[in-house]
Structure formats: C-alpha cells, structure tokens
Amino acid sequence: MSENTPLLHYRLTSGSTSPEPKNVPDHSKAKAGKGRRRTKEKGDRKLGVLFGVVVPTLLSMFSVVVFLRIGFVVGQAGVYQSIVMFLVAYLIITMTVLSVCAISTNGALDAGGAYYMISRALGPEFGGSIGIMFFFANVCGSALYVLGLVEAIMSTFGIPEEGTAVVAGLQVLPSGYWWSLLYGTALLFICFIVCLVGAHIYAKATFVIIIIFVVHENANYTGFRRHTFEGNLLPNYTVDYTTGAMMSFAKVFAVMFNGCTGIMAGSNMSGDLKNPSYAIPRGTLAAVLTTFITYNVLSLLVAGSCERNLLQKDYNFLGDINIWPPLVTIGIYSSTISAAMSNLIGASRILYALSKDNLFGGFLALVRKTSLSGNPWASVLVSWLLVQVVLFAGQLNTIASIVTIFFLLVYAAVNLACLALELASAPNFRPSNWGYISQALIFHQVRKYLLMLDVRKDHVKFWRPQLLLMVANPRSCTGLMTFINDLKKSGLYVLGHVKLGLLDGLPSDPLQSRYDSWLSLVDHLNIKAFVNLTLANSVRHGVQNLLFITGFGGMRPNTLVLGFYDDCIPEDDLQGQMLLSTGTGFDAVTPSIDHGEQRSPFFPDVRGAYDLKDLGEEEYVSLIADAVKMGKNVTLARNFNQFNREVLVSGKKIHSHRRMTGPFVDVWPLNLLRPDSRAYVDICSLFLLQLACVLQETRAWKHARLRLFLCVEAGHSLKKEEEKKLRSMLKELRISAQVQMVAWDQVVELHWQRRGGKVRGNLAESALNEEMNERREEVEKEEVFQIFPNNAAQMTDEYICAVNNLIRRHGAPKPAVRFLYLPRPPADTSLYCTYLHQVDMLSRDLGPTLLIQGVTPVVTTDL
Asked: What pTM was estimated for this model as a whole?
C-alpha cells in the first residue's frame, strides 16, 4: 500500500501522540518521528493487569473509607440503609465500568483514561469539558485522601486540644489547623516525588501497600453479638464530631461514595499499560467485585461487634477490635497515601492528554513537557500545586460532597458516551479517531424518519420541490446553483454531475476524491445541497442513473433542472475567488500526474469556444423526454449567468409608477408553442404558478412581485366562465399576482396562416371556436405520462419570433426571472432538433428564464 493512501490520516500511532482536532498531521514530520515514538512507547508501557489496573483500583477504592469511614456509615445509617447505599453506589459504578469496558475494547487507548475515551467517543467539545471536570475530581480526591491520612495520624500521634477527650497513643505532634495543613503538605510532597519519578515506581509502591492491606483484612474480628447487630440495623443520624454538621442520608452517602470513586485508577494509567484494551476491563471488573464483597462483609462484621456509640464517636475504632492494633494504623497510612498518589498521577495524565489535544490553545502548552523517559513532569507539578490549594479546606468531610459530585458527573458522561453510541448504532465506532457523536445520532434519526416517510402517504397538500440540478462544470453556473437553492423551499436539493468514462480498466473510482471539492463549493456558496456524482459512458445514461438512484424513500428528486443547450461561451464565476475555510483560491493549480500539467485541485477550466460539448442536441432533448417518462418535472434554466443574487439580497428596489417596488417575477402560463390549446389551468400551468409562489416565499425574494400574463384574442377574449374560474383559482391558491391581459391576435394569425387559414376581421368565428374547443377536449383527454404532441413541425420561425417579441415588449420593468411553459418533446425523435430550435427561439434574449414542464399535481383545486 502506498504511503500516500488516506489510511495514513487515520492516526500516526496508537500511542502518545494524538492528532489535533481540525488539522491533518504533516506527513513529513510523521515519518521522521514515527519510528522513535513507537520505540519509546514500547519501552514506556510496562504495566500489566495486576500492577497496572487491579492493585491501583483496589487501593483507590478502599483507601480512607474502609478504615476511617466504614464505622461512620454503619453508625449513622444503620445496616439496612448502608446496604442500600452500597447497592446504589455499585449500580452506578458497575454501569460506568461496563461502559468503560465497551469503549476501551473498541479501539487503541492513549494516555488520559476516561477523558481520552469520552473525547474520542463524543468529540472534543464534550471531551474537553468533561476532561477538565475529571481533572478537578482527581485533584480534589487526592486532597481528600491526604486529609484523611492527616486525620488518622493526628488521632494517634496528635496532642489533643483543650476540651477534647484524651485517647491512648504516643501524643507528640502539635495539633491545630495550620499544623494539620503542614502535615498534609509534607505527605503530599512525598506523593509528588513518587509520581514525579514515574508510573513504574508508583506501581512498585502500591504492590507493597497491597501486601500490608491483605494482611490487615485477614485479621480476626472479635466480640460478635446478636444484640449489638440488632441495635445497628436502623438509622440514627447525629452530629458529625469532626465538622459539627447534622448528618443525613445524602451526606453520609456522599462520604461513603468516595470509597467507590477509584474505579478509574486503572484507566487513568492507560498510557502506561502494555495492552490497555485487555487490562482495563478485566482488572477493573475484578477490583469492583472484590471491593463490593469486602465492603458488605466488613459492614456486617462491624455492625455485629461494635456499639453504635463507638461507631459514631470514634472513626479510628478498627484499632480497638483488631488482633494487632498497629496493623490497622499501617493499613490506614499505606492505603490512603496510595489513593492520594493514584488520584495525583491520574490528574496529571488527564492534564497531559488535554494539553496534547490542544483544546485550549497555548494555555496548556507548558504542561506538555515530558522527561526523557516520557513522564509528564510538568503536568505532575501543576496537579501537585492545585492539590495543595485544596488542602486549605482542612477537613475530609468538608470536601467529600464536592468530590462525589465531580465523579458522579464524570461517570454520567462515560455512560452517556456508551449509550449514545449504542443508540446511534455507529458500526465503525473507533475511539482512537476524533468522533462526533452528533453526526452518528443525526444519521440514526434521519434513517428512522426516512423509513417513516412513506411514499404511499404522499399528499398534494404537502408537495414541495425536490430538485436535481445537473451541473457540467460548477465554474460556469454558480448563479444558477444559488438560484435553485432559493427555489427548493426546504425541499431536497441535489447537485448532480456525470463524468464520462467506464470503471473498467480504472484502478479505482475517480469520483471519490472529487467530493471534497464539490462540498467545499457548497460551503463557499452557502447553499444547502447534497452532491451526487456518477460515472457513465454518456451523459444521458448518467442522468438516468441519477434520476433512478438519487435519494431515499420519500426524499427523491421530483424535478430535473438542466442548463440550457445553446452556443453561449461559459464564463468562469470562480475566477479570483478564495475558499474561506482553507484560504485556497479556486484558481490554484497543482502538478498533475499526467505529463506534469498544472491543473486546478477543484474543477477543470470552463469550455472554450472551439471545445466540443459532452452531448449533442438530440441527446439533450432525450434527457427531457426521459425525465417526463419517469414522472419527473423538467426545468430548463437559461441566461442565469446574468442573474445577480447579491443585488436581490441587498434589497435594491426599482422605481415604477412613482413608487418603489421590489423585483418582478413574470409568469406566462400558456403553452406559447401550442396556441390552439389555450388552457390556463392544466397541470403544467399550475406547476408554473406554484414554483413562482415558492420562490416568492423565500427570504431573499420576499419583496418580489408576481406578474401573471394571460394571452387573449381581442375579438374573442376569454369566456366569462373561464375567466371566472381563473380568478377563483388564484384566490383558492392564495396567489397574490398582478394579472395582465395580453392581446396576441396578430401572433395567433401567423400560426393559423401556417395551417392554411386566414384570420381576418370576422372570419367564421363559430367554426374557429368549434375547432379550438375540440382541441381543448383533446388536451383534457391526454394522459400525463404517455402522449407527446407532434406539433413541433407546425410552428414557423416567424411565429416563434413574434411570440418572443411579445414577451419582451411586456417585460417592463425588466423582471428578475421569467417562468415560461415548456412544451413536451415530440414523440418522433427525428423532430428533437426542431423542437430544441423552437424552444431556443422562444427564450432568446429574455434574461434569466425558466422553461418548465410540470407533470406533477401540486395544488388542490377543482379546476
């Protein structure tokens, strides 16, 4: 596989270097440092399941709670509520652990533990905020354990203050707030030194501590009594003698829950583990099960062997009931200092991961520094200083609630990440990439509602234009692309493009690499459109493919939009423009693989005067006929190189009849190439009116005014009943339009002269009306998708030019856009060129014009 394949953008390594959220890594730098990083990572990652996950997690969860607060929980809450507290707490942490297991086994893990998992699952905007919260949770947790250790030391070696009870022990240490702060600072400094040396020293220290702890847990409890056990079953909340605050279920739960917050100790070491995806789930689950059993068994033993008064008044009571009391003291000291180190090293790893991901710019740049062995000493230093600040709180129970809140929020975020990914059903979820859960959720919701959008339940009342605009070269049709964006009315808008060629013989799909350019243009033009590219041996086959396959369910194009087929030389609308997202100009060129030519990375140059088109006249008309056969409306857009939307959006108004008014939209609903039909209320006419109203309802066209031109013969005019129907139709459709009657007797005369008749003065009016009524009946009987009238050869150039002049004469003030009736192509394919010639003459020099053939009922009316 070539080194330039896009797979290299996935990730440089699975180790300590994370890509920045928005920038693609530089490949030259990646190659230079790739080997060194991998060698360094293999040397740094030394910890396995036991020492890397199980031991740190056990010590963090047991810590100060099992020694100093298990009696507090049972004495205040009683056995029943204590068990409820443990069940609630372990339900929370078990769900979190399962989420951690699911996330950690779905991709490579790096330093940062839970932060790394969340950021790669929910994206940097969620991960960054949760990462900061988890960092402070570990900082406060480290301070909590240091304060717990100080409390244990002072209860044994502290000189009692005046008014306090004297307990047995070697009382040599001065007591008081500032002395306790000094002792905490000294203990924290020891933790700092161990963490500063590195994770391997921390792992060795925890191994010694766990040995001591196991010896302590195997000690025998004495004095188990049924009466004592029954007396400790129910709750009895009193004042906490360390803080003077009245206890409650919530406050006791907050203190107790700190004994469960160490479940992330193993995942925090993810950057130092040999195989994080293997070690974290197995080690964490083993530690959680062990602590759950230990806490419940210990609570029952304490409740049966200690009076409630002892549990409430002496948090250091375990020394009195152990076989060898000093062993309890050693266990307290070792486990609490281990938990403090675990939280300190966890906080430093999270801070280091945040700085590597560059989420806060240069604010965290200094903490990115590491030692030669890869230990983030700067992060350890900053974490140590913040823990020192928290030590000023002074009492363990004071900050216990804060720590609990922090950890509960972090656990909720981890569970949310796993739940969201499960709901989104993202099959390629890999946390080692920057992922945006919003995209996965959007995909899930869109798929669900597309399935609910049943085409069998479509109703004309809820019709909206769903447009497929075929684009040969975007450089020459940006005006049309922005105009169609206004015309879509919150419907589907797809930009289609056909590249001539066959996949046979090609090494890969040549279109995949072009989507970025098209999507960049969509962003640049600020339009809401999808892009669909296809490869075909002809433009006709390519358009057929797109009409067949574009969209899903009820969201499929119902209208095909084509640029007009004429001899105009296209202009480059993108020349000199810059792509704001990258700062690259659309005129930028890069060397091509073929013959060293310079080509644009976006789109090819526009067609020159002597360049051949990709399709001929007959094939172009075939596109129209194919679309009508498939039940699609067809719109031909002409002269939109003259369309200036910026003038329209700026609110520029014109002077008309001594008042200021907005731009005009002219609608000619009659089939001007078939004057004998004279039908104003057929499907196509209504489609023209509907599209014009849709355009007027958009924000950019809100000041536009509709002008409806009705062609009549001065001698006959419209029948009163037909004119009444027309007025009623406009009222029912709630169309506000300026209706203008246009006399076209002389134009119609040219048509009938071609057919051998002379319309002069009062020529056989009854015979003429009878013939025209017959033609109207024929029109009403036509099947929408089957009949193609063969009237192309009956129109003379003289007649069509007269119609074109008629339209131009009635175009003052000049409209922003015109809507004309597009006749269907003839059934005889030999007349395709004649048909195109006539449509060309009809719409020549009219400015921006839409020629529309509507086959879809779009309004509810009885007319």
From this structure: 0.56
